[in-house]
Design a protein that fits this description.
Elements: H1 3-26, E1 46-48, E2 54-56, E3 79-83, E4 87-92, E5 97-107, E6 121-124, E7 135-136, H2 139-142, E8 148-151, E9 156-161, E10 166-174, E11 179-188, E12 194-196, E13 199-206, E14 219-224, E15 227-232, H3 233-237, E16 251-258, E17 260-264, E18 268-274, E19 278-287, E20 307-315, E21 318-320, E22 328-338, H4 341-351, H5 366-381, H6 386-400, H7 402-417, H8 419-428, H9 433-446, H10 456-473, E23 496-498, E24 501-503, H11 505-520, H12 529-536, H13 538-546, H14 551-579
Helix pairs in contact: 5-6, 5-10, 6-14, 7-14, 8-9, 10-14, 11-13, 11-14
């Protein structure tokens, strides 16, 4: 490697390690947002549910944004828990909704990090300002916001009677597979017609998994006409290329016929499915209280200024006639659980609403992503851990594409051998580019070589890489899976920090294999020198792009590179042996190499 190459590599590494510091310097983060004043925790009493279990009452949440703001009641909050085999649900008297979901079989922190309380589990709607299934619509439909909670044989009942004669009754019935049935009745118990204002039924709030969640995968989605669309932080930040700030957005509205809406983070989701399609979905970004210090692993720091996305179904204003037979009845099915493809696909098929689209695999590469996930789960069922499943799938894919890659390697070698003649053609017709291209193509046809053959394997395997990338983004099966020094294949494989910058070995190993692979592959004949330099240092670009992605993705690419290196060497060795023999496979005799 020459001195210039070493200098470029050094500068590239310095840029990699200093990039985030540079961006932070150019675009410093905003000052901490003021938090609403919280009550003294020593003065907060403890609410007791009907089973006698004590649950700490929380301070009133700040007002949620939107056209129909929620103001938490000043009265003390009553909390009641209901449990299934999979989930612990906490309901609140403030709005009569679902305040918190605890997934009993999923730890909040995974990997090698030490947590003060290992019993802490993943929660949904965490510290959200408004409980799920809260009805917003102003004082005419909210009143003082206080509901009476009572456990029932099947679940929980929340009830409220407003001064105008409107009675609101909510019944929550937990089921299996992380599902809950929600039935709501709005009844007019007086003799006069009640004008109901426009209403928002809160689906929930997308919140971070834990204090270390950077929020890049927190988003909101909605299902309409067989497709899912979604938005996240980039929409509300409205920045250019993720760097140049723009005018921030505060609200997102979309109209249509929606079969469900979902608030989600990287691995867990909270989806609401109305029996009758909703006609509008409204989303706001909300700021959340600071993370609980007890949730922060030893030696780590919680990410500051946590935020979430509160989403609601919106319904138009209407009139409610007196009499119980005219009660307005709304039905919802809630899913509050992991983003596990097979579970969601099974539920979506049963309910006929394509719930597996929550995985957001996309339509073009979705088939590949699903096939890779099912293959990985199938190999895992045979006894392999997930890291070896990824390695095994990579080997299988490489074997399937082995002939194609071999053809490509030989074609590139043949093109390299013909490069002097092609250079002569280019020099001869340099004054006539059209003629030069024509003669070059004729020369290639005569010698049966194709300049595109070298790119074909990459083009064919590109959908596989995108499928892997898409699948591994939200593959909950990899959460907490260990391999070599990586303690969580779903996250980057950080082993140490250098001046605050994470040291991730897998992307570095991947770059080394890419450089060596490029060294073994001759450049395409006629390629511009500038393009050759770009191709030469492209591995550094991939390191920058993939440095903070999951260890599983860089593991796949590293194994892919190693297999390609092995195949290239084997192909060259095979070609060398064939060159040393005759066409009939026998060694060429020295006397035959000369003509009389």
């Amino acid at each position: 490697m020459d001195r210039k190459s070493i200098l470029i590599l050094l500068v590239s590494f310095l840029l990699i390690f200093g990039w985030f510091r540079i961006v932070e310097y150019l675009y410093p983060p905003p000052p901490p947002r003021p938090r609403p004043a919280l009550r003294d925790t020593n003065a907060v009493t403890r609410a007791t549910n009907q089973t006698g279990t004590n649950i700490a009452a929380t301070a009133p949440a700040p007002a949620a944004p939107g056209s129909t703001q929620w103001i938490a009641p000043k009265a003390e909050e009553q909390l009641v828990t209901v449990e299934s085999s999979e989930v612990r649900y906490t309901f609140t008297s403030h709005g009569g909704g679902l305040k918190l979901v605890e997934l009993k079989h999923f730890p909040k922190i995974v990997g090698n990090r030490k947590v003060t309380d290992p019993a802490r589990v993943v929660t949904l709607n965490t510290k959200a300002p408004v409980a799920a299934m809260t009805l917003l619509g102003g004082e005419a439909i909210q009143g003082d916001g206080l509901f009476a909670l009572a456990k029932t044989e099947k679940g929980l009942r929340a009830e409220k009677l407003l001064p105008n004669g409107l009675r609101i009754v909510k019944e929550f019935t937990p089921g299996s597979n992380y599902l809950m049935q929600v039935d709501v009745w709005l009844e007019n118990v007086k003799g006069e017609t009640i004008a109901l204002p426009a209403q928002e039924w809160v689906v929930g709030t997308a919140t971070p998994i834990n204090p270390l969640d950077k929020g890049t995968m927190i988003k909101v989605g909605w299902f309409e006409a067989g497709k899912m669309n979604s938005i996240g932080e980039p929409y509300f930040e409205n920045s250019t290329l993720g760097c140049i700030p723009g005018t921030k957005r505060t609200e997102h509205k979309v109209e249509g016929k929606f079969g469900w809406a979902v608030v989600e983070n990287q691995f867990f989701a909270m989806a609401a499915m109305p029996k009758l399609p909703a006609e509008e979905v409204i989303t706001h970004r909300v700021w959340l209280p600071p993370h609980d210090p007890a949730d922060v692993p030893e030696g780590d720091k919680a990410l500051p200024n946590p935020y979430g996305f509160q989403t609601a179904f919106a319904y138009p204003a209407q009139r409610l006639q007196p009499g119980g037979t005219n009660a307005l009845h709304r039905e919802f099915t809630l899913y509050t659980g992991p983003k596990e493809y097979q579970t969601l696909a099974r539920l979506g098929k049963r309910m006929g609403n394509d719930l597996d689209l929550i995985m957001d695999y996309g339509s073009f590469f979705g088939f590949v992503a699903k096939a890779l996930l099912l293959s990985m789960n199938g190999l895992h069922a045979l006894g392999l851990n997930y890291a070896w499943c990824i390695i095994a799938i990579t080997i299988i894919i490489k074997l399937l594409f082995w002939p194609l890659t071999g053809i490509s390697t030989r074609s590139m070698k043949r093109l390299s051998e013909l490069q002097p003649q092609m250079k002569a053609i280019q020099e001869k017709y340099k004054e006539d580019p059209a003629k030069m291209n024509q003669k070059t193509m004729e020369f290639m046809r005569e010698n049966k070589v194709n300049p595109m053959a070298g790119c074909l394997p990459m083009m064919v395997q590109f959908p596989v890489f995108i499928g892997f990338y898409t699948m591994l983004q939200s593959c909950i099966e990899l959460r907490g899976e260990e391999f070599l020094w990586a303690h969580d294949l779903a996250q980057q494989d950080t082993v140490a920090y250098l001046f605050g910058f994470p040291i991730n070995p897998f992307p570095i190993v991947m770059a080394v294999t890419m450089f060596y692979q490029a060294h073994l592959t001759p450049p395409s004949p006629g390629m511009d020198p500038a393009q050759q330099k770009i191709m030469k240092y492209m591995p550094m670009m991939f390191v920058v792009m993939l440095y903070n992605f999951s260890a599983a993705l860089t593991l796949y690419w590293t194994v892919q590179n190693l297999l390609t290196i092995a195949q290239t060497k084997l192909t060259k060795l095979s070609d060398a042996k064939k060159a040393a023999t005759g066409t009939n496979g026998t060694s060429a005799k020295p006397s035959e190499s000369k003509k009389p």
